[in-house]
Design a protein that fits this description.
This protein is of the alpha/beta class and 704 residues long. It contains 21 helices and 18 strands. Helix 2 packs antiparallel against helix 14 and helix 4 crosses helix 7.
Length: 704
């Protein structure tokens, strides 16, 4: 089981466990400062362009006029006499105002204004105008002027009102005012010309024709209804259909009842023939008389005498009265026992009369059902004839109604338009009064300069381009800049972080970081067993990994007093060895070092454990011997130096630790190394980050 990791201090950062850290603002700032040249270059391009455009931009003046459109019946503007759509008077007033806006923005009004003001005054020719006019005609020049005029023109309806705001923008203030006033004048003139076309006479002819067609169709519909006897076709059809269905249901019920009555008559006659005329007599004898309460009265008197005897003296008048009553009741009971009463009654069979009456009623009902059946047949024939007549009249009636609806809709449409056209012709001379000028163009002139907005847009674009360039550079970068990047990419916790100056002698932060890393490794447990054989791997050949392995081995031996063995397979320069011969421990030729309790691998050629041809079983025995000989074994290797031996050690050691070089180790190489360790059956507990550089200022590190 992997124990929780301790926090690192000094040059290290705290390990975060198995969960990769989230992307923070500090990571973003570090990536931005790391690619600061690319960010500045990408952001400088839109900023320079925006500054150049702002320097060449001109101040523009906008002259605005306000027009109020009077929406009423007298100012309807529909002229299409063949239109069969909705009437003009039925559309919203806002639609009429929008149609006025379209007239203002039309090309005819714009062309008349350009001709009146002058194309050269509106749009002064540039330096290359003489050359461009050589390759174009006068019509092309006018068309371009009209197009530019429409681009500078703005006509919009004010929100919630029937007021139109007409604006024209030009670098010359006087030209902007003159163009706006000329535009309004030409619009009013064009509007008067649009409404000079009389249409009332044509529309009235259509109204009369529709009226005569409607009268003819109404007469045909009335004749068809009288002939078929129809009042309301839909209701008559439903009634006829329901009547046929009701009669059919009744015929079925009568037929069912007729069969049932016949069966009942047959069964009743059969049972009647089997019944006897009478039943046995019986006699009844009793001595009880109706209303005889002597025994009950005697019991009540005896109870009353017992109560009175307990309250009065013997021989009192009340006791004597009760004794007389008791004697009288007893005498009556005695005389009644001498009498005898008997009752004799003879009973005949009651089923005979019941069945006779039932047979009689069933025969009467059977006769009535036969008569009812014949009447229902006659009624069904009449109902079916009525339904057939309605079906025959349905198709021509539908056609006539459809024709009448179409004619009625056209009649109403043309009648409304004829009335509107007549009113329009009557008000043709005062048509300009429907649109009134509320504000002259010279009363509202606004000045606008795009220099500051362009500079602001350039700054914003510079930020966006710089951020996008930095993000793209960070995405394409294959090296690691921060430990968090390596932790997120590899999915392994960071055990220790060392900066670029960690190998400088006398660095207190490095000593503290080495001690924290050693404590973390010694406190870690896997399956309740401590880590004794540690393997540091790196995909690159660099001096940082041998330095880390040596410093960590010295920490275990000198300060933790552990017998430590250092196997350096990633450095060409061996660790300083003490004078004297070496020894063979666990397949490794080891030699003492100046550091107490620290041994180092002296000769790789004489070490069987470092031979890649060694079988795995013998390698496991040698590794077990190393564990008995030393308290801690530190191995450092890199793929370019000894790839096959590295794979062997990845399988035999207690834990593998990846060494990632900041800005040097490539992400694909580190990922491949991690996967090779996993494929060989080794366990990777984390990574150490070497050679980290700090790109942010100290004050920004404290705040971000």
């Amino acid at each position: 089981m992997l124990m929780p990791q301790a926090a690192q201090t000094g040059a290290t950062e705290p390990a975060t466990g198995s969960t990769p850290p989230a992307f923070t603002l500090r990571d973003f700032l570090i990536a931005a400062f790391y690619h600061i040249r690319i960010v500045l270059l990408a952001g400088l391009i839109p900023l320079v362009v925006a500054l150049a455009v702002a320097a060449t931009s001109r101040t523009e003046y906008t002259a605005s006029s306000l027009l109020m459109v009077i929406v009423s019946r007298e100012v309807s503007n529909a002229q299409n006499v063949t239109d069969t759509g909705p009437a003009v008077l039925s559309i919203e007033g806002l639609k009429q105002v929008e149609s006025e806006v379209q007239i203002i923005e039309s090309a005819d009004v714009a062309r008349a204004t350009v001709v009146e003001i002058g194309a050269d005054r509106l749009f002064p020719p540039g330096r290359l105008a003489a050359i461009t006019r050589l390759f174009s005609s006068d019509k092309d020049v006018m068309d371009k002027a009209v197009e530019r005029f429409q681009a500078s023109l703005r006509a919009s309806v004010q929100s919630g009102s029937n007021v139109i705001k007409v604006s024209f923008t030009n670098p010359d203030r006087d030209v902007a005012i003159a163009a706006a006033d000329a535009l309004v004048k030409n619009y009013l003139a064009a509007r008067r010309r649009l409404f000079e076309n009389p249409t009332a006479k044509i529309l009235m002819l259509e109204v009369n024709r529709f009226q005569s067609d409607l009268s003819a169709v109404d007469r045909e519909i009335e004749q068809l209804k009288v002939k078929a006897g129809i009042i309301d076709f839909a209701q008559d059809a439903i009634l006829a259909s329901n009547q046929v269905d009701s009669i059919l249901q009744r015929r079925r019920q009568v037929a069912e009842r007729e069969v049932a009555v016949a069966a009942q008559v047959t069964e009743a006659e059969k049972q009647f023939a089997a019944l006897p005329d009478s039943v046995f007599d019986f006699s009844e004898k009793t001595d009880a008389l109706p209303g005889d309460e002597d025994n009950n009265t005697l019991s009540k008197l005896l109870l009353e005498r017992d109560r009175v005897a307990s309250q009065y003296a013997p021989g009192s008048q009340l006791l004597r009265d009760l004794d007389r009553q008791i004697a009288t009741i007893r005498a009556r009971i005695k005389t009644r026992s001498e009498r005898r009463y008997s009752t004799d009654r003879a009973v005949r069979n009651p089923q005979v009369n019941y069945i006779q009456n039932m047979i009689l009623s069933l025969k009467v009902e059977q006769d009535s059902l036969g008569r009812q059946k014949g009447e229902l047949v006659q009624q069904q024939r009449l109902a079916e004839e009525r339904l057939a007549a309605l079906r025959a009249a349905e198709t021509p009636l539908i056609e006539l109604n459809r024709k009448r609806d179409s004619l009625g809709e056209g009649f109403r449409e043309y009648q409304r338009r004829a009335v509107a056209a007549a009113i329009e012709e009557a008000a043709a001379q005062s048509r300009q009064s429907a649109v009134r000028v509320v504000q002259e163009a010279g009363s509202a002139v606004t000045k606008r300069s795009l220099a500051l907005p362009l500079v602001a847009a350039g700054l914003f674009a510079a930020i966006l381009f710089g951020g996008a360039a930095g993000a793209l550079a960070s995405t394409l970068r294959t090296s690691f800049v921060t430990p968090a990047e390596a932790e997120r990419a590899l999915g392994l916790p960071v055990l220790a972080v060392f900066d670029a100056e960690a190998d400088r002698p006398g660095n207190a932060a490095t000593d503290e970081a080495i001690g924290s890393c050693a404590t973390l490794l010694l406190d870690t447990r896997i399956d309740e067993e401590p880590l004794r054989v540690l393997h540091f791997l790196s995909p690159d050949a660099d001096d940082a990994l041998p330095w880390l392995a040596r410093r960590l081995a010295e920490e275990f031996a000198a300060r933790r007093q552990l017998r430590t063995l250092l196997i350096d397979l990633s450095s060409a320069a061996p660790y300083p060895l003490a004078a004297g011969g070496g020894d063979m421990r666990g397949g490794i030729a080891v030699t003492g070092t100046p550091v107490p309790l620290l041994w180092a691998a002296a000769d790789a050629e004489r070490s069987p454990l470092l031979d890649f041809r060694l079988p795995i079983a013998e390698a496991e025995l040698m590794m077990a011997e190393l564990r008995r000989a030393f308290d801690c074994v530190v191995i450092s290797s890199d793929l370019p130096g000894a790839s096959l031996v590295t794979q062997r050690f990845s399988q035999l050691v207690d834990a593998n630790i990846l060494a990632v070089q900041a800005e040097k180790s490539r992400k694909p190489a580190v990922l491949r190394l991690r996967d090779q360790v996993a494929e060989s059956g080794g366990l990777t507990i984390g990574l150490v980050f070497l050679g980290r550089r700090y790109y942010l200022p100290n004050w920004l590190y404290r705040r971000a």
